[in-house]
Design goal:
- By secondary structure, the chain is of the alpha/beta class.
- Helix content is 42%, strand content 15%.
- The longest helix has 19 residues.
- The chain starts with a helix and ends in a 17-residue tail after the last helix.
- The model has no long low-confidence stretch (mean pLDDT 94).
Length: 420
């Protein structure tokens, strides 16, 4: 019997949609007001904000704001019109992607108009129906969506488990050999939810035993990892051995877009086959010029990354000293794990925001196992050591209340708290 698509959607809103009635505008789609930075306003009250991926504080850097404004005034948001292949290419695009890829240590690059869609399209174009993908089981949603679009077979290996990876590589190489295809291993430089690093050096070592190429998504690694901020491949000293690196700009660059970097022939192939770029408008010039300024600042001001890590180390060392569980993070991403369910989690967030003036993201099942809560904190170069100390003291109080059962009641009516 045929069923109406809209009726099915209304009856099954999904794991997040089921909470929309109580959480919209508060837990989901909250509205932060004010200049981007640690001190903002939420729900009519000032909050200390730990929920922005503005790692290096570039969103409000005066030189960045000036470059953005001047480029917008000169070109508007319309220029260039059309896709780059047809009528939307400029000297600014060409210079920027060249400068970016040279900085991270690759000979060629391609500037893309979005991060998420960029990764999806890269996977689709790099692989064919004869190829096999082997990917980390905790890969970002853009990687999963890219594999859904690709015609390649795929195998998942247990998160950062090299024994599991080698087992899957055995299967993948046999299948690729039978089909006359190749093998692509996909992982992340920094896993953005838990903050741990992809084991790039160990994966590269397996190239000595198995014939495969490596693609990494280093959205959270660029600007934050490595001696000069070139990313997680630099951190491990394996830039030459990583075949394709994708860096998105929504984190350290505080912008939109991304660059994929690799060998010139591979970049040329991507240019001529990525439909998300061939049939989409070129990245507007104010963004390209603004991104160039951001890149120049990252290259010439290492103190930005140094300041970030001063805050990261103070925050994470402080939490460890108080016995908090931060999992396996090795990056600025700072997850704090507690025991509890959705009810406790929502009540913790309300208490943090309404009574302590702390704004951070909360993660519950099904993203993490049942019975666990994660408060995800993103430190930036714009935060201060006083704000770090204040946050640690608040979390100590919240943990005591959580352990005592204070938050165990039902989910509160958010209309009591939401301001018009």
């Amino acid at each position: 019997m045929i069923k109406d698509i809209f009726e099915r959607i209304k009856a099954t809103p999904g794991p997040l949609g089921q909470y929309q009635g109580i959480g919209d505008g508060y837990f989901m789609f909250p509205r932060l007001v004010g200049e981007i930075g640690p001190e903002m306003e939420f729900n009519g009250k000032p909050v200390l904000n730990w929920s922005l991926n503005n790692y290096l504080g570039l969103a409000n850097h005066p030189e960045v704001r000036k470059a953005d404004a001047e480029a917008a005034a000169q070109y508007g948001l319309g220029a260039p019109m059309g896709a780059r292949m047809m009528s939307g290419n400029t000297d600014h695009h060409i210079k920027f992607e060249k400068d970016f890829s040279e900085f991270i240590g690759k000979p060629a690059g391609l500037c893309l108009n979005f991060g998420y869609m960029g990764m999806i399209s890269i996977i689709d174009v790099l692989t064919s129906r004869r190829d096999v993908i082997v990917y980390d089981s905790e890969s970002h949603a853009c990687i999963l969506d890219g594999m859904r679009l690709s015609l390649a077979k795929r195998f998942a290996f247990a998160h950062n488990d090299m024994v599991s990876l080698e087992k899957q590589l055995n299967h993948a190489c046999k299948l690729a050999d039978e089909q006359g295809g190749g093998v692509l291993v996909i992982t992340e430089g920094v896993f953005g939810m838990a903050g741990d690093l992809g084991h790039l050096a160990d994966i590269v070592e397996l190239k000595k035993k198995y014939p495969f190429r490596i693609l990494i998504d280093d959205a959270h690694g660029f600007g934050t990892m490595g001696a000069t901020g070139r990313g997680t491949a630099e951190h491990y000293g394996v830039t030459d051995e990583i075949d394709v690196i994708f860096d998105a700009f929504a984190k350290s660059m505080a912008s939109i877009g991304g660059v994929v970097s690799s060998e010139p022939e591979i970049i040329d192939h991507l240019k001529c086959n990525m439909r998300s770029q061939i049939y989409a408008k070129s990245l507007p010039l104010p963004l390209v010029i603004g991104n160039q300024k951001r890149l120049d600042l990252i290259k010439s001001h290492p103190e930005l990354k140094d300041k970030l890590w001063t805050i990261v180390n103070a925050l994470q060392d402080g939490f460890r000293a108080e016995g908090f569980n931060m999992g396996a993070t090795e990056s600025p991403v700072t997850p704090i794990y507690f025991e509890g369910g959705v009810n406790e989690g929502t009540n913790v967030v309300v208490d943090l925001r309404e009574n302590y003036g702390i704004f951070c993201s909360i993660v519950t099942y099904p993203v993490i196992p049942k019975g666990q809560l994660m408060l995800r904190i993103i430190p930036t170069a714009s935060h201060t050591l006083e704000q770090v100390d204040r946050t640690i003291q608040v979390f100590k109080e919240v943990k005591k209340k959580l352990d005592s059962g204070y938050y165990a009641g039902g989910i509160q009516d958010m209309n009591v708290f939401k301001k018009a």
